[in-house]
Structure prediction request, 72 residues.
Amino acid sequence: MEEKRTTKTIEETMEELEAIIEKMEDRESTLEESFACFEAGMKLVKECTQRIDKVEKQIMVLSEEGMEEYES
Prediction:
């Protein structure tokens, strides 16, 4: 049985953010709709930033381990 994925990939999150930006650029949105989009977009930006930071830390750890093996 296939395991269900609960978290979105970074790419999926970026696509969702792009859709929000397109909606905000639509001049027919109300101020309330624009604010809701802005709020949702900021949450997605924060989520992406946290996930990218996590990946960067993992890369740093792997790089350091690789350098230690190379120097041995």
Remarks:
- Residues 31-71 form the longest helix (41 residues).
